[in-house]
Amino acid sequence: MAKKQGGRLLSSAGLVNYYESEDRRAVHISPVAVMVVAAAIGIIIYILDIIFATTV
Questions:
Q1: Distance from C-alpha of 16 to C-alpha of 18, rounded to nearest angstrom
Q2: What is the structure's pLDDT at 20?
Q3: Quick one: which of 15, 24, 51, 56 is 20 to 30 A from 8 by CA?
């Protein structure tokens, strides 16, 4: 009979282990930086839309 490993759910298929692990070599981006970049890209697209929509 298979043993339970640490009481983790079998149906999670290893996703719990994947998201709980920390890899020090991985690229880490803060959530604030992601939001700032997304907002900046949105503002740039909005400005370009205003500029080029009025010239056509």
A1: 5
A2: 54
A3: 24
Inter-residue contact 4 to 12 (CB < 8 Å): no
Q: Which position has the higher pLDDT, 38 or 52?
A: 38
- Kindly give, in sequence order, each residue whose CB lies less than 8 Å from that of residue 10, ignoring residues fewer than 6 positions away: 4
- Higher confidence at residue 4 or residue 37? 37
Q: How many CB atoms lie within 10 A of CB 23?
A: 7
What is the residue-wise DSSP string for the chain? Answer: -PPPSTT--GGGTTHHHHHH---TTS----HHHHHHHHHHHHHHHHHHHHHHHHH-
